Amino acid sequence: MSKQHEPSPPLAVALTQLAQDLIADYRDLREGRIGVREARARALIAREALRAVHLNFEGLRLLSERAKPVNGKARLT
Length: 77
Description:
- By secondary structure, the chain is mainly alpha-helical.
- The chain has one domain (10-65).
- The protein has 2 helices and no strands.
- It has helices spanning 9-30, 36-66.
- The longest helix is centred in the middle third of the chain and has 31 residues, at 36-66.
- It is elongated.
- The model has no long low-confidence stretch (mean pLDDT 86).
């Protein structure tokens, strides 16, 4: 019996907020409220945050693929 895993609400909220902040930064850059350096710094921080999320999911996938049955139960996929 396989179970669907959904992202936890805190992660979904954090990613949504990150996307909204990037959009706001882009608008601020276009309107001259922030400079190019500031926009690039913020984008690099967001990029690293998304890379961390990606690495987390890749690690979970790798571990779940290598999981062995426990007490005769099939592994979750």
